[in-house]
Amino acid sequence: MEQQTAEETPTSNATNAAVKGEASIKPQFLTTKDAFHGFVDSNWKSNGAKVEDVPEDAKDVAPVEEPEAKKPKLDTDNNKSEKPDKKQWRGQNKSRPHVKPTAYDEKRLCLSVFKADKQCHYGNKCLFYHDIGEYMKTKPADIGDKCYLFDTFGKCPYSVSCRFAMAHTTPDFKTMEKADRVKEFEGRNFVKNSLTKDLQISLRKRSVKFPKSDEYLKALDKQKKKEQQENGAAKACTNKEKEVQQASTEPETQQVNVDKQAEVKTIGPLTDVDIIKLRPREKKQVDFKDKLYLAPLTTCGNLPFRRVCKRFGADITCGEMAMCTNLLQGQQSEWALLKRHECEDVFGVQLEGCFPDTMTRCAELINNNTEVDFVDINSGCPIDLVYKKGGGCGLMTRTRKFEQIIRGMNDVLDVPLTVKIRTGVQEKCNIAHKLIPEFKQWGVSMITLHGRSREQRYTKLADWDYISSCAELASPVPLFGNGDILSYEDALKARETGVSGIMIARGALIKPWIFTEIKESRHWDISSGERLDILRDFSNYGLEHWGSDTRGVEKTRTFMLEWLSFMCR
């Protein structure tokens, strides 16, 4: 008995003894490994697992429940008082939940099956199908019997993964071709400004060189240090003068002789022009006057929509707003916003950023690797995410940074640099008229003014009287007006204000044939059949741009629904 008691003593004292390096735990919270596994297995069983799958030694172990004091309590009173904010879901372009196609990622075909050697880079770790027969059993049914890509170009690059595959696939899953069509389009590249794999890798490794930008930024840094030294010297001189004035009020025995001090002559503030010598390089000229400009619409201003508007008479098109930092990181989704179709004869890209270094480097990157006719700075974006960083409308209140950005981008670009602004940030505080004379000195080639402030958004009509006064200030630099152009009468009134051209945004979304109405000065009572033809063209352009596989079809549907939320009006 004594021996048995002696053996049990260490076990009973184990929970009370404090071991060095271990935290002391109350006995009610202690458990064993078997009890923990039993608790996990019991939860698994309650979720639908079979009893046979539970280990034998864990079936009889009771789960250790959490003490009553530690269980989370639901604040029922607060839950009852809180009501869902329905207002945040109203309006347009809200972040609505996106439903992904069911089990889409599980039914994809590995691209290695189309290679000559059919070797997959991922080997046994690849999650996609390598057997075309097995893939065809799980693939969703075709949504049509005609493939636009096959009928137009004679070949569908998506082969059996196309959602119209039966139109160009043999019973043994071979892809058919139309030799005459393939030969007709051989070597033609309809879309430009794609991101190459080599450039993407170089951007991610940060091995891309920016010689022109580095030269400008070094000069900018040198100027900043010089200004700091001058400010310090001026401050020291001011302090010395105060000491002299104090000394002059003291007795003569304590006076200090300051007659021999040399005066510090100031030369005024230094600008970039004083330090940076602009190279006498002739830039590409673009005639913006009396043109119809399709606004760079985020989400809806995609390449297929721009093709539709070009067909109806849009003169100038611009890509969707692209973040300069994302472009410098080589993000494929951001570079897709720079793509240009061959029908876009006057095309520009719009950049968003808030610092001179990133914007200047991004401008040099675009200048060297893309084909664009102009580059636009978006200083009119009202989104909080952009504004709080100092970009978008925030640039209008940061004139020093704005100047450095414009001068730097102008220095590295071979194409014109344009700016898009609003009347101001606050509703009744217009500041655009103060910036426009500065833009002329900084080298801006064209200005676009949206006749609303950031706070107004779209709640009130655009102020075309203010746009008219700004157009006079901007001359001879062209200024485009933007806001509330929904018919050809609105366009005629806008041209009477003295603007050089008109930018159209929501009017083009509601009715893309507005460009034809303005050019022909008439109302077009378009029929339902013609509207369906427009949507059919958009869907075909979308399948050509995003692809005719499941991913491309879903993207085309998504952007069509975004557009229809405007067009239905």
From TrEMBL:
Family statement: Belongs to the dus family. Dus3 subfamily.
Keyword Cell membrane: no
Reactions this protein catalyses: a 5,6-dihydrouridine in mRNA + NADP(+) = a uridine in mRNA + NADPH + H(+); a 5,6-dihydrouridine in mRNA + NAD(+) = a uridine in mRNA + NADH + H(+); 5,6-dihydrouridine(47) in tRNA + NADP(+) = uridine(47) in tRNA + NADPH + H(+); 5,6-dihydrouridine(47) in tRNA + NAD(+) = uridine(47) in tRNA + NADH + H(+)
Ranges annotated as biased composition (Polar residues): 1-16, 245-258
EC number: 1.3.1.-
Superkingdom classification of source: Eukaryota
Annotated stretches, region: Disordered: 1-22, 41-101, 222-260
Organism: Mugilogobius chulae (yellowstripe goby)
An MF annotation (GO) of this entry: RNA binding
Name of the protein this chain belongs to: tRNA-dihydrouridine(47) synthase [NAD(P)(+)]
Keyword presence, Oxidoreductase: yes
Chain ranges of the C3H1-type domain: 104-133, 146-171
Compositional bias of kind Basic and acidic residues: 50-88
Swiss-Prot/TrEMBL cofactor(s): FMN
InterPro entries named in the record: Aldolase_TIM, DUS-like_FMN-bd, tRNA_hU_synthase_CS, Znf_CCCH
Record's keyword terms, sorted: Flavoprotein, FMN, Metal-binding, mRNA processing, NAD, NADP, Oxidoreductase, Repeat, tRNA processing, Zinc, Zinc-finger
GO biological process: mRNA processing
Known role: Catalyzes the synthesis of dihydrouridine, a modified base, in various RNAs, such as tRNAs, mRNAs and some long non-coding RNAs (lncRNAs). Mainly modifies the uridine in position 47 (U47) in the D-loop of most cytoplasmic tRNAs. Also able to mediate the formation of dihydrouridine in some mRNAs, thereby regulating their translation.
Transmembrane stretches, start-end: none
Positions annotated as zinc finger (C3H1-type): 104-133, 146-171
